[in-house]
């Protein structure tokens, strides 16, 4: 069975189970994320270690910059097309997939835009999981890492590596790591701008 179909089946199954039972998994998601990052670290250590991080070079620093610029351009376009105030459209776009951060930050300013920030960034993560394998058929696999934004170091990394290959694992991790460091500053900064 096609991997993308399996991902969709498990996503839908998880949604149905989540709606059907009232179990609170608490911080299980966070624990699983740490385990995933540990496994990624082990895999990185086995393959190329710190040499691999150095190997990404300038491109590894430029790719997050391209992601930020592209995301903000997307926010400007969304502002125009959807008639959303530019400040909120840019702040939503600046979440770059980090829905659990973007939504709450925006909610301090507006409940509606907080929900939008959460949903848009959740959609970015889900669409990366579902769509990365299709996008790399038309675009370079390393440039397609930008789809995942900050999630390219954790939740979308397994998908990126599965379809893009292990040779882009370090680039994807570095890309997501840099964005994860920057997003908590970019989003609040945009919301403070007098625009």
Automatic annotation (TrEMBL):
It comes from the Archaea. Keywords: Membrane, Transmembrane, Transmembrane helix. The chain crosses the membrane at residues 59-82, 88-106, 113-135, 168-193. The keyword Membrane applies. The keyword Transmembrane helix applies. InterPro entries: LysO. One of its GO terms (molecular function) is L-lysine efflux transmembrane transporter activity. One of its GO terms (cellular component) is plasma membrane. This is Lysine exporter LysO family protein.
């Amino acid at each position: 069975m096609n991997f993308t179909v399996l991902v969709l089946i498990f996503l839908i199954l998880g949604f149905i189970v989540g709606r059907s039972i009232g179990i609170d998994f608490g911080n299980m998601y966070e624990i699983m994320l740490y385990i995933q990052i540990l496994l990624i670290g082990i895999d990185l250590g086995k393959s190329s270690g710190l040499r691999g991080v150095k190997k990404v070079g300038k491109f590894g620093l430029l790719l997050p910059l391209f992601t930020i610029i592209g995301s903000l351009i997307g926010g400007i376009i969304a502002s125009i097309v959807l008639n959303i105030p530019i400040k909120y459209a840019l702040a939503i776009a600046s979440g770059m997939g980090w829905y659990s951060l973007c939504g709450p930050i925006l909610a301090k300013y507006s409940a509606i835009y907080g929900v939008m920030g959460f949903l848009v960034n959740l959609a970015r993560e889900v669409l990366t999981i579902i769509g990365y394998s299709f996008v790399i058929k038309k675009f370079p696999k390393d440039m397609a890492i930008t789809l995942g934004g900050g999630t390219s170091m954790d939740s979308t990394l397994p998908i990126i590596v599965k379809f893009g290959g292990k040779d882009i694992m370090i680039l994807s991790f570095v890309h997501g790591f840099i964005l994860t460091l920057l997003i908590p500053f970019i989003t609040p900064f945009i919301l403070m701008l007098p625009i």
